[in-house]
Amino acid sequence: MTTVALKPATMAQALTRAMRDAMAADPTVHVMGEDVGTLGGVFRVTDGLAREFGEDRCTDTPLAEAGILGAAVGMAMYGLRPVVEMQFDAFAYPAFEQLISHVSRMRNRTRGAMPLPITVRVPYGGGIGGVEHHSDSSEAYYMATPGLHVVTPATVADAYGLLRAAIASDDPVVFLEPKRLYWSKDSWNPDEPSAVEPIGRAVVRRPGRSATLITYGPSLPVCLEAAQAAEAEGWDLEVVDLRSLVPFDDETVCASVRRTGRALVVHESGGFGGPGGEIAARVTERCFHHLEAPVLRVAGFDIPYPPPMLERHHLPGVDRVLDAVGRLQWEAQR
Amino acid sequence: MTVMEQRGAYRPTPPPAWQPRTDPAPLLPDAAPYRVLGTEAAAQADPGLLRRLYAQLVRGRRYNAQATALTKQGRLAVYPSSVGQEACEVAAALVLEDRDWLFPSYRDTLAVVARGVDPVQALTLLRGDWHTGYNPREHRVAPLCTPLATQLPHAVGLAHAARLKGDDVVALAMVGDGGTSEGDFHEALNFAAVWQAPVVFLVQNNGFAISVPLAKQTAAPSLAHKAVGYGMPGRLVDGNDAVAMYDVLSEAVRHARAGGGPTLVEAVTYRVEAHTNADDDKRYRADSEVTAWREHDPIDLLEKELTARGLLDEDGIRAARDDAETLAADLRARMNQDPALDPMDLFAQVYAEPTPQLREQRAQLRAELAAEAEGTH
Ligand SMILES: Cc1ncc(C[n+]2csc(CCOP(=O)(O)OP(=O)(O)O)c2C)c(N)n1
After folding, report:
1. pLDDT per position as a tens digit, A130-159
2. Which residue, among B148, B6, B170, has the nearest Cα to B99 in the 3D structure?
3. Which of B125, B205, B208, B210 has most ligand 1 atoms within 8 Å of its beta carbon, as the pocket-test mutant?
4. What are phi and psi of B44, to 5 degrees?
5. Integer CA distances (angstroms), B356 to A149, A329, B347, in order
6. Cα angle for residues A135, A140, A146 (degrees, 5° grid)
7. pLDDT in the model for residue A108
8. pTM for the complete prediction?
9. ipTM of this complex prediction, to 2 decimal places
10. Which of the residues A261, A268, A295, B192 has the least number of beta carbons within 10 Å of its own beta carbon?
11. Chain A partners within 8 Å of B165 (Cβ)
């Protein structure tokens, strides 16, 4: 088997490589979903898997999300490790019943006799000019469901490392793929894929002293760019990439906030009832005496995802992040 | 040869352009519910099988009565009785080999017990002390499933996985008439047919989904007819005729095991008691209807056949009842003990490794319990 050297690689390629390596290493790993076989997925993330491993290992299923995930439950019960692709974020909703009523709680209700090692890959988020139902950020729904791990990579190396970890996990993992980063490149060497990343650890992507930007997935590049821009204002921003929303890495996040004294959560999904509220509360509960300003949030508006021609007004961009950084400063001086 | 090696047989390549793939006639269900008892065919039935079915039916009836009594005493949170449906329950368990899997709904405790699960463990969910209560792997019985029809795709996935591994395992999944309206029912049937998965779907049409009669549930000629649209055979069978149930289900299991794919079996039966102890069935049906069905009782039907053939006498009947009484007494005795619960179990199996968040909450509960214990000393 020859490996095409891909340097630099895209996130999509790293994800493909992660599945390929997992399938090669473990014959119980099965990829399934709509159009994942011959076509290689509508984002081509499963490209080549059916050719290499056969249609029994990378299967085009009938078009029915509950059926796909429900069948994956039975397959996992029989010892397989299904990796399920949900074609787009909003098309995972028909499978919620299976996810919430069965996938998330089978281990618990069977007292550990029946763990379900299922990875549910969900391309999520906006910024790709998708029409209605193609850009939702659904992470809050998953986070609210005990029994699921919720993971979202923001870099090419993490895409590989975290997906390998997700597939190897004996628990179900909702693996959120920021689709607008699918084609982002990194100088990642697919011939030496990075180490498998343990699920549940955040990472400081950029050290700083003035404030902490807490973010993940599609908003990481936005925050890094904002941090760069803020330098001109004399602000030295630290950027924490959560990578895993469940379990949540309080330790890394709070250590950072205690250092900087200010925190801003940035994500695309709506703010009301969104991940930022939970994160802000956790940070406040743990770091109150270190905080020099309230924890702020920059989130998408609380609206159904807007049409593509308007989405740039909805998505938190660098300016909105910088405005909030300004408010952190103002709040501190008040 | 594993299925992977004979892929062509397992998953036929679709025709290049769409065309009707099969003559639907072989898929059409029986014109009337298939029956053995009371017909000449009954004389052919194996005496050993008849006796086995009879003993299980009598046990099942007694189990239903005992479990219902336990709800009245507050020992069970709820019990969905299967009185009148015992033939379906018993046949579903008896047609399976050890290596096969059963996927029951909440009403199918009897099938679970008939498959060999400890009667007390089978009631754990309904008792409310823990969810599944038994180890599904031990007897290859999936957890009793509460959300309607959601266990059906699991059965398909498991059967498919077994096939992929080259094991000749069959999954039998049970669902009620109301459950056939759920999306998961349709998705499961479609997957099973497309994948030619070795699954038997058993619909117990007991007339009602809580209060809603079949006529308001479907406009199909019968539930078994639904099979045709998915490309699998449908069977219509008298659900109160234990021998007919056994025949039809074992034929479907054989068909599945031999690589023939899934079958949909509709058992026409009746829920003689209320939906659960929380239901008032007087609101939606007449006593006369219930009485008429009581006259088509699965135990009576079989008893008549056994007696007529000289396979059962007063002593035999008494022996079966004594055996059922022993089961009931054991159930009573063990259910009348308070279960020993450890609150720390709450956190035990949410994840393989508890998250830091759960570890904190576990510590909190432990502290609360310690404080509580101190307070009572
Ligand atoms: C998804 C879902 N919706 C609603 C319910 C509540 N519910 C429990 S039993 C029942 C009726 C089911 O009727 P049927 O499928 O005919 O089975 P039966 O109880 O008659 O055996 C309903 C509506 C449920 N358990 N799951």
Report:
1. 999 999 999 999 999 999 999 999 999 999
2. B170
3. B210
4. -80, -15
5. 13, 32, 12
6. 135
7. 96
8. 0.94
9. 0.91
10. A261
11. 78-79
